[in-house]
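Database export, one record per block. Field names are fixed; values are copied verbatim from the stored entry.
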Amino acid sequence: MGGYTTNQGAKKEGTNVIELSKMACERANFYESDIQVRHKEIIEGFIGYLRKSKLLL
């Protein structure tokens, strides 16, 4: 897995999150609208999970 080096020279490992890896391969750039859509999907998914688990009415 890839990664990066910080300005201070520290090496950071790349993510193992398949979803993020797939998104990075499919897109050359991320735009504000992409981030907003993904944010909404994450929040709605989490709320759905809470409701399904009967942790939210």
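Remark 1: Helices lie at 18-26, 32-52.
Remark 2: The chain has two helices and two strands.
End of record.
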